[in-house]
Write a structure and sequence with these properties.
The structure is a homodimer of 155-residue chains. With 155 residues, chain A is of the alpha+beta class. Helix content of chain A is 23%, strand content 38%.
Chain lengths: 155, 155
């Protein structure tokens, strides 16, 4: 909110166009994307948004993010109907925030499950751990983003 | 996620049914709802979810929450098309989380604007402060909620 008016001193000092500016924006966005916890958004069957904090298992830059999840989770059910998703990161002041818009797909292949696995998931997947049929991996692929008030495309 | 398996020791010790249990859940939910920052969810024109951190200007229990906002904010535009909304709070461990589902309405009346106003909004609304035509108030009314894995209705 207040997108037209509130800028940090950094924003004031910098011209808001050009390749260098966008590089700087993405650099700042990437710092937030390196955080361990993301707020993950989905849309339910009644077109109502939902939010859940999730641990990021792995990510590649601003492009792809992986999350350990389960088929029985509410969020996974949402993505089965509507793969539209966003992930949000923030840090300290309210304007230090990044939202990435994209799609979330559900994967069951063992290589991805191994990649996203952590030992503290054992208590959640008692029916075979990494082989528990309820265990799945959510892969988020970003299309575009907003760092604070600045929009950018994902290459 | 992992809704079937991960519970805190408190959840383990308590029977998961009955009025007393639900009262305890709502009490814990209310503690989170008293936090100053909410993560607010909307759905855009392409059916994609969006998340934004917002300061809570005022709230009544788990039922209603007010936010200072602007007509030109992306989120406000979303709510003009689709008033479905959620607000999310968390605190520390990932399972200490509350999501409320409901509707978000946009208000322009001066009493509500006064109620939600704070002096640090001056820099955002230079065209008359509290009388700036871009300034508006978002009112969220909850219908139901989830505290961690426990669902409840709002009376």
């Amino acid at each position: 909110m207040y997108k037209k008016n509130i800028f940090t001193s950094w924003f004031k000092k910098n011209k808001r166009t050009g390749r260098k500016f966008m590089e700087k924006i993405k650099e700042r966005a990437l710092k937030l994307a390196n955080k361990k916890i993301a707020f993950v958004g989905s849309v339910n069957e009644n077109n109502v948004p939902n939010i859940k904090a999730m641990s990021v298992a792995k990510h590649h830059g601003l492009e792809t993010f992986y999350f350990a999840s389960s088929h029985s989770a509410i969020k996974t059910e949402h993505y089965k109907r509507n793969f539209n998703a966003c992930i949000y990161f923030n840090d300290g002041p309210i304007y230090k925030e990044l939202v990435l818009e994209g799609i979330m797909k559900i994967f069951n292949d063992i290589e991805m499950k191994k990649m996203a696995w952590k030992n503290d998931l054992k208590s959640a997947f008692k029916n075979g751990g990494i082989h528990d049929p309820d265990y799945c991996v959510l892969k988020f692929t970003a299309k575009k983003g907003h760092y604070h008030t600045e929009a950018f495309e994902i290459d």
